[in-house]
Backbone:
């Protein structure tokens, strides 16, 4: 069974990530651990839109920008639970949790307890992604010695 560590937050419910996970499930027996770096409310991305501000990515989530860190955590946990429900309903072994707001630290903590064959990072579009600006996928690949697949949500 191939074991995947999925790292995502605002993009958890996006079609790009769901499509990639479906491909993995269809290809071979798979299990998933979904890790959600617990992003603070201040770091949720929003973009100007007609009539005001829209959370980014607007095509991925129906959540507004959280007002507090507690609300951000509640939204992240809700997205996580929804994805885990979808995966387990598909007959796939899946679990997950919120982790450190620092994604590299969160990945390191997950790897301390578990073994994975690959890391899948789902992130916002390039022009908005703090993770891509920090070169998270390449840093994770170098630091942890695992292949990393990056899913960049389309804007």
Residues:
């Amino acid at each position: 069974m191939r074991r995947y560590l999925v790292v995502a937050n605002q993009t958890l419910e996006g079609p790009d990530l769901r499509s990639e996970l479906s491909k993995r499930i269809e290809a071979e027996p798979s299990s998933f651990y979904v890790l959600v770096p617990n992003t603070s409310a201040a770091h949720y991305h929003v973009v100007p839109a007609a009539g005001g501000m829209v959370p980014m990515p607007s095509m991925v989530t129906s959540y507004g920008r959280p007002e507090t860190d507690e609300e951000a955590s509640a939204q992240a946990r809700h997205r996580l639970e929804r994805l885990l429900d979808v995966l387990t309903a598909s007959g796939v072994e899946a679990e997950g949790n919120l982790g450190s707001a620092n994604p590299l630290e969160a990945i390191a903590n997950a790897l301390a307890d578990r073994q994975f064959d690959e890391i899948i990072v789902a992130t916002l579009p390039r022009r908005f992604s703090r993770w891509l600006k920090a070169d998270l996928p390449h840093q994770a690949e170098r630091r942890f010695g695992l292949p990393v697949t990056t899913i960049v949500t389309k804007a």
Notes: The domain at 2-152 is CATH 3.40.50.620 (Rossmann fold). The beta strands are 2-7, 30-37, 46-49, 52-55, 93-99, 118-123, 148-152. The chain has five helices and seven strands.
